[in-house]
């Protein structure tokens, strides 16, 4: 088929040209050169060479004097046809290279298309794999969250049952023991014990409700500018009702600064910190409260006692629920006070931490936003 086209092309061109009788038939050589170039581009070098040879023979026979013979009477025709053969060969070579370049370009284009298709497939698979990995990571995260929630639930139930068992047991024992007759003094003591355990039970339930509200994100604050000194003075008076001998050292003048806070919740913060210090510090030692402005827009409050202090390994857990870091040697706490302090301070856009100190005792430092003074 290829070789037939190489021979058929010059023949058809000749059949068309012999119908005309121009004075310079030798100019037809350029048409044959174009034909050779076209065959070279379309079919390659060897078909172009065959087309050139056929074109040479047809030019010699039909368009070179004497006509209709394969002889040439003029020397310039010999030269012209020789040049035609050389030129046709060069045109065939160049056309063939052009064809090879086109074929290589098509092959490269096809290869690039295949590579692009493969990249699209790989990207799709990679995206699907990434989505699957993301779904797996989210599932694992949800599983861990559920496991942690279940652990906290079981831990909470265990701690709550433990904390409730003691006061309830005491109340039931004192109120139902009728095995022996009691003197009025013993009855009075039993009633005081029942009342104390009832107050302890009430405090535990109240603290549990506060923790639930804080951790559930349902805490509502009535934030207003208020005098920090007034809040400290009120908290000191409340502590003296249960510990009248405890000395509280604080400066009224340094504490006269307005903070943006909820009065009731701020009092709860001070009550828990002062109650914690009073419970662990020796009776003859004071509790120190200091107020300062260490950061712009924030007021820093420091509550320090002179008790046994908090070991370094327990400072990270001291604000966890039901964590009794210093339960040996002291009691009476629900284990929720410091957790409530942290939740309330965080809700006020502040921070709370336990600091180290050179002398014995624990130091709790928390911050509150300073109230903006308007002109």
Strand order of the largest sheet: 2-4-5-7-6
Would you tell me the structural class of the helices and strands? alpha+beta
Low-confidence parts lasting 5 or more residues at pLDDT below 50?
327-331
Strand content: 5-15%
Strand segment count:
7
Tally of alpha and pi helices: 8
Fraction of helical residues: 55-70%
N-C termini distance? 101 Å
Radius of gyration: 51 Å
Mean pLDDT: 79
Main beta sheet: strand number and arrangement? 5 strands, mixed
Order of helices and strands: HHHHHEHEEHEEHEE
Chart the SSEs and their pairings.
Elements lengths: L1 H16 L11 H15 L1 H19 L11 H102 L7 H32 L8 E4 H15 L5 E3 L7 E4 L1 H18 L6 E9 L2 E7 L32 H11 L4 E4 L7 E7 L6
Helix pairs in contact: 1-2, 1-3, 2-3, 2-4, 3-4, 4-5, 5-8, 6-7, 7-8
Walk me through the structure:
It is a single chain. Residues 327-331 have low confidence and may be disordered. The chain contains eight helices and seven strands. Helix 1 packs antiparallel against helix 2 and helix 7 (263-280) runs antiparallel to helix 8. The protein has helices spanning 2-17, 29-43, 45-63, 75-176, 184-215, 228-242, 263-280, 337-347; strands spanning 224-227, 248-250, 258-261, 287-295, 298-304, 352-355, 363-369. The protein is of the alpha+beta class and 375 residues long. The strands form two sheets. Strands 2-4-5-7-6 form a five-stranded mixed sheet. The chain has a two-stranded antiparallel ribbon with strand order 1-3.
